[in-house]
# Entry
Amino acid sequence: MLNQSAPDREILAEKLGLSGKQLGYVTGAEPGSGLIIFDNAVIPFTDRYPKDTLTYKIMNTKPEEAVQQ
# Structure
């Protein structure tokens, strides 16, 4: 899960049994940050991928950056 709006966070917290601390990872989350939910594990993550790589250019989903290239 990545950044979520307040109403969506409430629904997801209830359905997935997330704590307030866990919801903090999807409240105003930076791009590349959030929660991975697998089975009974909830894992916070931050992925700061280097922007000066070919892989970043290929996988980038930000339209404003794609236009600049």
Observations:
- DSSP finds four helices and two strands in the chain.
- The mean pLDDT is 85.
- The longest strand covers residues 33-38.
- Strands lie at 33-38, 41-46.
